[in-house]
Amino acid sequence: MATSPTSRIAALVTEMQKQTSCITAYHEDNNVPGPSFDSETPNPSYPPNICAACAAALNAAQELTELLQGPQQLLLSQLAGQQYIYHRLIDQFDIARKVPLNGDVSYAELAAAISLDESALRRVLRYAISNRFFAEKRPGYVSHSTASRALAEDPAMRDLAGFLLDEICAGERRAVDALVKWPGTQEPTETGYALALGTDFWTVMANKPERARRFAGTMSQMTKGDDLSTRHVVDGYAWSSLGNSAKVVDIGGSTGSIGFALAEKYPRLEIVVQDLPQTIAGAVQRDGCNVRFMVHDMFEPQPVQGADVYFYRWIFHDWPDKYCLRMLRALIAALKPGARVVIMDAVMPSPGTVSNMMERTARYVRYSIGSEMDEEALTRCDLGCSTWLWDPASTLRSGSSTSGRRCSLRRTPALNSRVSGVRRDRDCRF
Ligand SMILES: C[S@@+](CC[C@H](N)C(=O)[O-])C[C@H]1O[C@@H](n2cnc3c(N)ncnc32)[C@H](O)[C@@H]1O
Predict the structure, then answer these.
(1) Tell me, what's the pLDDT at 80?
(2) Measuring CA to CA, which of 102, 232, 342, 360 is 20 to 30 A from 10?
(3) What is the pLDDT of residues 233-259, one digit of tens each?
(4) Which atom of ligand 1 has the smallest separation from the CA of 254?
């Protein structure tokens, strides 16, 4: 029998109470202030169990909101939000950095500073304020909220905003045109992004150094959130079992967020971070850290021979099967017996098997850069000998779990015939 709406509301409220009391207890026990929209109060950073409580509370709160909204408000909230407009304005005119970190600035001064009509600016910014970006604590003056302050203070937050506006939103708007024009395509050149920008995402990155730098900044910002935190890599795999001086190649490792996090905990690992030239150009070597950077196109033969682990985090979801296989084939000649290929990525959950919030994120990933990979590819990720499924309760080698997270670490048992030339008997012990 279906749950009655009243009991569903009650269940959601109970869930929120349960989760928020964990969060509140954490604040009290640790004497840290709770989250606030007020820019004077720094937002707390939480340990994993409290991150999980936040995710569960948010999931229930979101369901409750949408339940109570009803169909029309739900539609309006999804399509009539127009948040794009104020974020575009804030990004284009760098407004976050034009508002003082302490104190405020009048709409008139701000409008003059960016040569924009004052009433238009006020109208758009007041909408942003109602959406928690900026504040108007005294009439006619703009100050920061927590979210706008983060934009002002953290360049990687601005990178993320610009990336979402220029790459993601642009691709999304033409995604349906692409699906109609190129049904079943496996080509990154045949996407909403390519229709909007005239070429594929990676070609744009290769030709526009500032956009490539911003993409790398976005990647590094994303690792600050719990979903894509480096801790899932550092704690999710038995790196210590590899022995001293084991060599790990982080393929598509961007500017090294993961490499550095691994090196910090496992200083004896020798870590090579590989990426495209435009990304490696922005990487900064750290003294005394066993991480080195290398330009390498992952579709070309792997130049680092005989490493212990070849690691791909958050790479495969950007590419249809055919390209994933091409990447793996490029590894073959470098693999020594016992080498491990470790892949960590979002894998599509079956409908209704994970929290609704997580399912939304997983499904959204498909359209992000526009590879428009078909669902089958993400669900099955069949490397020839193992079925590679998202399983939020999946136990890793040590019995730890990535439950509730967007990426899970899975092993690739022996790669076989589909990746021709890789021997079946590769050691895949964890
Ligand atoms: C989604 S990001 C993931 C970054 C990083 N692994 C992480 O988990 O934060 C994908 C990365 O793959 C890199 N990439 C894309 N095409 C590549 C290629 N042909 N060869 C090497 N790296 C590539 C991008 O530059 C980017 O850094």
Answers:
(1) 85
(2) 360
(3) 898 888 998 988 899 999 999 999 999
(4) 27
Atom 24 in ligand 1: which residue has the minimum CA distance?
A: 252
d(CA 351, CA 409): 20
**Residue among 300, 299, 301 at smallest CA distance from 315:** 299
Closest atom of ligand 1 to 205 CA is 25
- How far apart CA 32 and CA 263 sit, in angstroms, is 30
**How many angstroms does the Cα of residue 386 sit away from the middle of ligand 1?**
24
- Does the domain at 83-153 match CATH 1.10.10.10? Answer given as yes
Q: Where in the chain is the domain with CATH 3.40.50.150?
A: 221-349+381-411
Q: What percent of the chain has pLDDT above 70?
A: 83
Q: How many CB atoms lie within 10 A of CB 331?
A: 22
How confident is the model at residue 219, as a pLDDT? 92
In three-state form (DSSP H/G/I as H, E/B as E, the rest C), the secondary structure along 112-171 is HHCCCCHHHHHHHHHHHHHCCCCECCCCCEEECEHHHHHHHHCHHHHHHHHHHHHHHHHH
**Which residue out of 87, 144, 296, 317 is catalytically annotated?**
317
> What number of residues does the chain have?
430
Burial string for 277-315 (b: 16+ CB within 10 Å, else e) reads ebbbebbeeeeeebbebeebebeeebebeebbbbbbbbb
Q: What's the rounded Cα separation, in Å, for the pair 425 and 321?
A: 23
Structure tokens at 54: 């936040």
- Please give the share of the chain, as a percent, with pLDDT higher than 90: 60
In this model, does residue 402 exceed pLDDT 80?
A: no
27 as an active site residue: the answer is: no
Instruction: Between 232 and 404, name the one with better pLDDT.
Output: 232
Task: Give the orientation angle of helix 155-163 with respect to helix 83-92, to 10 degrees.
Answer: 130
Q: Is 207 exposed, middle or buried (0-12, 13-18, 19+ CB in 10 A)?
A: exposed
Residues of the chain with CATH 1.10.10.10: 83-153
Domain 221-349+381-411 has CATH 3.40.50.150: yes
